[in-house]
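Review this fold:
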Amino acid sequence: MLVSDDAELIAHARKLATQARDPAPHYQHSEIGYNYRMSNVLAGIGRGQLQALDDRVRRKREIFESYRRALGDLPGIDFMPEAPWGLHTRWLTVITVDPNRFGATREDIRLALEAENIESRPLWKPMHLQPVFAECEAIGGQVAEELFEKGLCLPSGTAMLSSDIDRVVSIIHSVG
């Protein structure tokens, strides 16, 4: 879903979502577009999910705060700060691990969690490091590379119990 008060932006987004076809009697494309149209069924499901949005965001923020309170004082463990101009949904709780200060790497923590059947994942691999883009020119990328090396996505599902969070926290404490 895209929401904006900019009519020109919305019109361009609609064009891109319908394969960016130019207004011509034949198929002509001046820019790359996509086939991102949403069906009525998917739109109905999305509207239904909006009713639970505030509850889900509230729970995601609670989970983040639980992790931050339990791990935020550990040397070498950092959390993404919240911008003063907005409200972060905390859709996913991600920590960065400085191995020199924490005493273990992001991968050490991930493997310790995995050994206890707890899924966590490294932060997203930067696009310029993806095999599909190996032949493409890349400019910059050092910040993304460092976040990939040090970032760990912690379990953050809204159905998590306090005991689930405590278990994750306990394992992370045992690694450092």
Observations:
- The longest strand covers residues 94-97.
